[in-house]
Design goal:
The structure is a single chain. 42% of the residues lie in helices and 17% in strands. It has 381 residues and is of the alpha/beta class. It has two domains: 127 residues, no CATH class; 238 residues, no CATH class. The strands form five sheets. It has a six-stranded parallel sheet with strand order 4-3-2-13-1-12, sandwiched between helices. The longest helix is centred in the last third of the chain and has 26 residues.
Length: 381
């Protein structure tokens, strides 16, 4: 083989690998990757499924019913009372300040917890977790509070323009780990108190399941809409009807979360399709949490590993015959699927399918084309 030809083929494979990796990170293959991560989660050890999420938006009608322009503690007590009587497994509230004792009493044993904006810490302080925080987790402003029966975590809105999104799951306040609203929700619906969350080198352990986070305390997911979005007045009507008529509760076993969504709350544009509240954007992560589909992305080594495998296919079995090229490509894909399943099950790292499939296929194709063109039969000068 001519030395220039050899360098050209290797360079072509390298450029192909890098381009496919960059396209994957841009979201070009999200439709395929969404199905792939669902397959990995379904076939891995993801544990029991979490309950569905019902998002309750505090509307103007509820404001008038509560006698206030904005959501106050009496409104929250009405919400948790209705959620408890409808059989919800837990109730979350956005941004409520003040003494939560009335809310806890109205919950009648149902776990309740609160979420607060990153720059608007709760007056009673953040709920702290046990264990040592990682150095790369961001510092959450405010103070850590004492032990109470009302847990308080920060609300982080997902980021990302493509199909795959990124969300912050855990932070630090001094030398204490601080949970996000999502972590609190997860522990509450599992029937675990916030004190049962443990911090380790590989992430956060909840009820025997490990939720991996990267060095910045983040994870990635493909968004799914909340199972149900309704107004608070609709929830109160549903609770009254259930108490009066009985039957099956439409929210039995659900996680119910109350969000401030009156007309004076700014709403966020989601593309050009709809207007949603910030907490509706947050709710898109719960579908991934339910099915164990939160994941981490691989580091720099992933495209280099694919490049090496593609070079091996191009200069090895793909040169022999068409049948050998097809067989070696299918075998490489099978090995990749088994490795991806093992890696996802143990570390929650997603090895993207599309770049791997196209890179390995490109290696097989270059090997066959090069052999038929006679590139491999020429001596290196």
């Amino acid at each position: 083989m001519n030395r220039v030809t050899l360098i050209g083929l290797v360079s072509l494979l390298g450029l192909l690998t890098l381009w496919l990796d960059s396209e994957g990170r841009r979201g070009t293959f999200d439709l395929v990757e969404r199905k792939f991560v669902s397959w990995l989660a379904a076939n891995g050890e993801s544990g029991a499924s979490l309950p569905p999420l019902s998002l309750v938006l505090y509307d103007e009608e509820a404001s008038q019913l509560g006698g206030a322009e904005r959501m106050n503690m009496m409104d929250v007590a009405l919400f948790v009372r209705a959620a408890s009587r409808l059989g919800a497994v837990a109730g979350g509230v956005e941004g409520v300040q003040g003494d939560p004792s009335r809310m806890v009493e109205a919950a009648a044993g149902m776990p309740v917890f609160g979420g607060y904006g990153w720059t608007d810490p709760p007056g009673m302080g953040w709920t702290a977790l046990g264990g040592e925080p990682a150095a790369g987790w961001p510092e959450v402003p405010g103070l850590v509070g004492g032990d109470t029966n009302f847990s308080r975590g920060f609300l982080a809105s997902p980021s990302g323009l493509g199909g795959v999104r990124e969300i912050l799951l855990i932070g630090r306040n001094g030398d204490r780990p601080v949970p996000s609203f999502l972590l609190l929700a997860w522990s509450m619906v599992e029937g675990q108190s916030w004190s049962s969350l443990s911090i380790g080198a590989n992430g956060v352990e909840i009820a025997g399941r490990n939720l991996a986070v990267n060095r910045q305390g983040k994870a990635w997911f493909f968004p799914m809409p909340a199972d149900t979005v309704l107004t608070m007045s609709e929830l109160l009507v549903a609770a009254e009807k259930f108490e009066r008529e009985g039957g099956d509760s439409p929210f039995f076993g659900h996680l119910l979360v109350l969000a401030q969504a009156t007309s004076d709350i700014p709403r966020v544009a989601e593309g050009e399709m709809a207007l949603i509240t910030p907490l509706e954007r947050w709710a898109a992560v719960w579908g991934a949490a339910r099915t164990g589909s939160l994941f981490l992305l691989p580091n720099w080594w992933y495209p280099f590993l694919l490049f090496a495998a593609a070079v091996g296919l191009a200069f090895g079995p793909s040169r022999r015959s068409n049948a050998a090229a097809i067989f070696s490509g299918l075998l490489a894909l099978l090995i990749f699927a088994l490795v991806a399943l093992a890696v996802f099950g143990s570390t929650r790292v997603l090895l993207p399918l599309s770049p791997a499939l196209l890179t390995l296929g490109g290696g097989c194709l270059i090997g066959r084309v090069g052999e038929q063109a006679g590139w491999f039969r020429k001596k290196i000068l």
